[in-house]
Structures are given as structure tokens and as C-alpha cells.
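Problem statement: downstream parser choked on a complex file, so we are re-checking the raw output for the adenosine-5'-diphosphate run. The parser issue turned out to be on our end (a line-ending mismatch), but while we're here, posting the original submission so the record is complete.
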Amino acid sequence: MQNDPVLERRAADSSEARLEQSLRPQNLDEFVGQGPLVANLRVYVQAAKGRGEPLDHVLLSGLPGLGKTTLAHILARELGVACRVTSGPALTRPGDLAGILTDIAAGDVLFVDEIHRLPAPVEEYLYSAMEDFAIDITIDQGQSARSVRVPLQRFTLVGATTREGLLSAPFRSRFGLLEKLELYPASELERIVRRTAAHLGTQIDDEAARRVSRCSRGTPRIANRIMKRLRDFAEVEGSRGITTDVAERSLARLGIDAHGLGTTDRKILVSLERAGGGPVGLKTIAVAVGEDEETVEDVYEPFLVTEGWILRTPRGRKLTDRAAAWLESERGGAQ
Ligand code: ADP
């Protein structure tokens, strides 16, 4: 029988999706870290269940890959309800939302990812749904068009955003629970790395787990991505698992250095150095490294700031003394 590349691709995609699914924590006990936030959610879920009411609307904010989607699904599971999933960019017209809202069962969670990207008319359409659990639907067209108020089942809106600042004040104020996810400390990422190794069916040395967690930019999604690649290297090299040696060589091949800095991070630091250490505007940095401003701000900068490589000042980004000294020493080493 001939190999069918399309079927093979589909099989690969679905096994990748299954793997992704298995890596997602399924309940609050499995969710590593974010202690205060998780503790709050436990109380709110328990209280809502005790009263037999839906949970208040929740806004989860935080950088990409920190677990917002995972938490939305966990909330639905802990509440014992279904989770409907959509996203800001997918809802282009109020009509798209009306279809989903009228279909929702009592108490269900409606998860809207990238909620800051909802078009303004759709956002405003959500207001009455969130507050009064009712929406206005226009029936008929032309002269006979009229608006009918349709009651909805009481539901919980869980919004996720990487840019809480872009949400309008009226929208923000309609969420009862505003929770922010922070970058994970290395100790928590290490627990995630070990958990991921177990799900991937591979062993990992203690030192290798520490290195991966230090190189994951405080982000579980990055830790998981690195782990999958390290498993590839370990398997192809016939290693008994992810040893320190495999981790070290593989991280280098992935362009990640011992500080957890990747190629683009280094380009950002070098672009600041070339500008005399700054301050340099975000736009200039984005052009220098060939990324868009949002990516530089959301993906690269938080780690560089947290780790003390750059400073954000009102006049732009500046290189820290630590970064300047390190770049200097790197050059010395390369000569
Ligand atoms: P976001 O929606 O914030 O971009 P996700 O919820 O998609 O992030 O999380 C990315 C991946 O990281 C998930 O598939 C999950 O496997 C993993 N992950 C996220 N948070 C945790 C956590 N606290 N513990 C363990 N794994 C996590």
C-alpha cells in the first residue's frame, strides 16, 4: 500500500493535538504555581457551586503561554459545566456572538481568547449579555426590521488577554474577577518540566530539568516546547533520556544560551549597545531585530526586564550595566 502523505500528516497532527491535550493540567490540583490566583479561584468556585449560581465573569490577563486557556477549561471542569471556546478575532460581527450566546446552557463557561481584539460593536453587544443575560436581536429587514429582546441562560464569560490595558474601562468593569498570571519562577517551571517529561514518557536528569527551567523564560508553553525538542534529540542520539549532556548540546543547537537568551534576545541587547546603551524606542528596536512591536513587547521584553538585562524607562529601553558587561565579556571571549 502506498503511503498517503495527507493521512500521515493528519495522523501526526492529531497525535500532536492529543499530546498537547495530555500536557494541559486538568484541574486546579494539577495546575502548578500561580499560588494566590489559584487559591482565590478555589474559593470563588466553591462559593458559586454552594449557592448554585454561575461563577462571576472572569478576566485572565498575562503574557502568552502562562496558562490562561488551561485555566478557563479547568474552571469549567471544576464547576461541572461545558466550556464553549471562541476568540476576539473570530467574532467579527454581533451576529457571530448572538448565535453562540443563544445556544449556551445554564451555568456554562464561554471562553473568549484574545478578548482585547473584539471589534467595538461586538464588545458593546456583550455588555447586556454579561449584565442582564439578555441580548437584542434584529429580525426581518428593511422597513419591517425590529429588535427583539431575547433572554439568555446565565453563563460565565472567561476572557483571556495578553493586553489588559487595551480593554475599555466599561468592559473591564463588567468582570467580577480580574486575575493576573505572572511569569513562573524557575522552581515551579522545574515541576512543570518534570511533569511534561513524565507525559512524554522520557526521563530527565535533575540538572537537565534545572537547565530547561532556567531557559524557559518563565513560561510553561516554552518549557513544553523545549522538552519536545530535547526528547527528539535524546531519541535520535539513542540516549536513555534527557541527560545533562543532551540538554546542554540540544539547547545550544536551539540557539538558547546558558542564561536562557535566544538569538532575538541577543539581537535586542546588541541593538541597544550599538545605540550607546539607550534609551531606544520600541519601534526602533523592532525594526532592528525584524519583529513587530507587539512581539518584542509581549514575547521578548518581559523576560529581559525580569532577568535584569534591560530597563524600561519613559524615554525608551536601556541596557543595564549587567548586560553591557556581559556583551563586553562575550566579545572578549570571541576574540
Ligand atoms: P495561554 O492561554 O496563557 O497562552 P495555555 O493555557 O495555552 O497558555 O498554556 C500553554 C501550555 O502550557 C499548556 O498547554 C499547558 O500544557 C502548559 N501550562 C500552562 N500553565 C501550566 C501550569 N500552571 N502547570 C502546568 N502546565 C501548564
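For whoever reads this later: The first strand starts at residue 58 and ends at 61.
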